[in-house]
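Lab notebook, bench 4. Still working through the backlog of constructs that have no structural model yet. Next entry is a single chain of 757 residues. Request: give me the structure tokens for it.
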Amino acid sequence: MRKQKKSPVRHPARNRSVPGGPPSDAVILKVCDIDIDGDLIARAEEWDEALRGPPPRIEIVPGDKGHSALAVGDRVLARVQVSADGVWEATVLRRLDTTPQNRILGVVRKHKTGLILDPANKKARTDYTIEAADLSGARPGDMVVAEVRPGHGLHRAKARIVDVIGRQTDIGAISLLSLHEMGLRPDFPASVEDAAQGLDVPEPGAREDLRDIPLVTIDGADARDFDDAVYAEPLPDGGFHLIVAIADVSWYVRPGGIIDAEAFLRGNSTYFPDRVVPMLPEALSNGLCSLVPHEPRACLAAHLWIDSAGHLVRSKFTRGLMRSAARLTYEQVQSAQDGAPDEMTAPLMVQAIPNLYRAYDILFAARRTRGALDLDLPERKIEIDARGKMVGVRTRVRLDSHKLIEEFMILANVAAAQTLESHKAPCVYRVHDRPSADKLDSAREFLESFGLSLPKGGQLVKPAQLNHLLLKAADHPYSHLVSEVILRAQAQARYSPENIGHFGLALEKYAHFTSPIRRYADLVVHRALVAALGLGEGGLDKGEAVRMEEICQHISDSERISMEAERNAVDRFAAAFLADRVGAEFAGRIRGVTRFGLFVSLTESGADGLVPIRSLPSDFYIHDEKQHALVGRRTGRTYRLGAPVTVRLVEADGLTGGTILDIVGMDGAELIGMSFPPAPGAGRYEKRGGRRDGKKHGKNREKGPDGALDRDSKSVPPEPRPGKKPHRKGKSMNKKVSGKSKTKSKATPKKKDPRRW
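Model written out:
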């Protein structure tokens, strides 16, 4: 008898739960990483290393409509088991720490049995009955917040409406649903709104008078608030004196006040395709703290002196009073610099705009010299019409005017961190750790197929080395894929009171200083500068200094929540946009490869959808992690990361944001002109004959909702035993007994997998 090979993964000894955890299969996990293929990796919150050894790496299984929008640091309640090939897998039952556990969001709909609640969560498996007494005034088509009522043996659980968000057909319904889903509040409490009224611009007093300096704001055409203004004047030695003036939010929002408490709770502004949920009330964000042209405004000004090589020679921070000379857009400024000024920019072409570009040229050259990571990936913008519906998508054009403002802001952020550190003052650093060894190893093996190489082993990788790879790949037809792979290998930036530097920008000291209207981190940095430099009232108090670790953790968490809400809204807008095109075919590209299917980005709309592995042409698919591909064991058919595909839209649900796709054709999807090593075991059984690919057979086939034949619900068949032909879906396994054929009964009960958690 062949001795069974031990799995490299350590399994618990017949224990079904984590020590100290729930006495069942449901355990609490924390998302600790997102790998290069987009898989979510988690670890158990409670794990006894002394008893069980190192905690296992647990892959979160996507739901029917893909991964829910989880981020690193999120906590989930999940069911965990170990697959036949020794991989720990988790199925999410519920996300924790967002909405109360018994509360759900959804839409009230008519049903033949009465009114039901259709949940907005992609992972929801059922809907809920609503009794007439529990409607709380809601009508069919209303988006609501409900709480689940306990039920006993009912076919459908019951829910009680606790709040009506709005009509599903209302303008902004998608954004409203997404922000409520993540616990964001669109409106400010009346007490906060009242506290923001009646405030005035301070008198000059001890403030530096900057009103005669032609500071200008440069923002997007759709920007509603302007919190930074810039100015540059040349120096005799070839360097420049720069001024970056930022709205003095700390003057109006004092520590411990009611406005401060609400701003801290929100952590940052959240941006949806059709609206903004601001961190500060409109009286401040669009009023006193917005650097509107020709109006006096309180500011915190960073005076920055650079030499001809772009080095920051010295800096000085002052509290000032300024008056913006003009509100400009990126496109206006770029057109003026390119020789086509308009009425507003023509007067500024004498000195103001040319000086800004000369200073930018020096700063950008310094950026290249220090080796900051230069990932210039295209950014898509969803276009919304007056009715709040998505009408298309376009790629944002990245101009030198965008980069100009970015370089000025980075320099001011560096100066803020250096100043606070030199005064030994508390600081909220924006830190970005080096890529992990695992992610670099994964990226390295894939990039080798492109003729690119990364240092091996424990050697430290520098941003300049990654830039060198990007430069070498610039003329490659798959340069965009190289950029994406390098981006996915990066760690997530966060806020911290401890400085570890910013890897991506290749900077030793970095803090966010330039957007206190929309980021609480910047407001804390302003307060720290005011206190450290003795600039007057509104400085950091002792309580905040003691709570710096807590503040950094909270604003890092709130940033992730906002990012998830924004992603969910984009998914819903895109799904609603595609909803009436079910059955249509689209060009796309594989953006993620997992053991459970493919994630495809549609070229036309930028929408992302899931191709479940069960919908791929019949085969046993191996997930080749090193080469980021699904490869058919029998046919060798391959679906690889970055490859172009044609897909058919199967489902698009604007309520949940879920989009399901089906691959068109039987040829797989490869990167044309590239050569990759074969996946271990791929194509081994091609010569054994059997049914033609894609032919539907077997008694267990069922018609899907669209009339198509669905495959077996199991996405991956069992690993074939040594010496046996692999079990192929839909075929019976026959044995010869005394010259007769005996069919193995399908009704044989399965033994319970002892490796379940």
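Notes after review: The chain is about 20% helix and 25% strand. Confidence is low (pLDDT under 50) at residues 1-24, 686-757. Flag for follow-up if needed.
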